[in-house]
Hints:
By secondary structure, the protein is an all-alpha fold. The chain contains five helices and no strands.
Amino acid sequence: MLFVLVGCQPLDQPRSLPSLDEPYFRCRVQPILGRSCAAFACHGDGLRYFRVFARNRLRMTGKEGDRNAALSDAERAANFESARAMIDGDFLLRKPLASEVGGYFHRGAEIFGEGNVFADTNDPDYRTLAAWLSGAKEDPACIEPGSDQ
């Protein structure tokens, strides 16, 4: 039996991720992820592949005194790269979307019993994520809400 793999990238080569606007992420997407995804039982768990650093949630330092501090540049960069890595297969959009409207199974909907993060594609936060993935841009001088800068 002969198997031919066409279009596969060797495992030892990093996958190239799309170029997405970092200021748009910082000012519009980051607050959504912090609010909707960063709970300790969800993606605020450092053991998860997709993890989100946020105020009063998971922090890089692990120090209780730093928990409510503004996100560090390293935490912001980690959130940006983590979100970009979830683009394959539309995971960033479809995982938190209700399965009844085309989303993927999301255990968070079962754990919290409140349904998925997005009930449908008309949710303003869903539309913000979709805009970022479609190339939306933000003023580079934009300051992330709640950043204390």
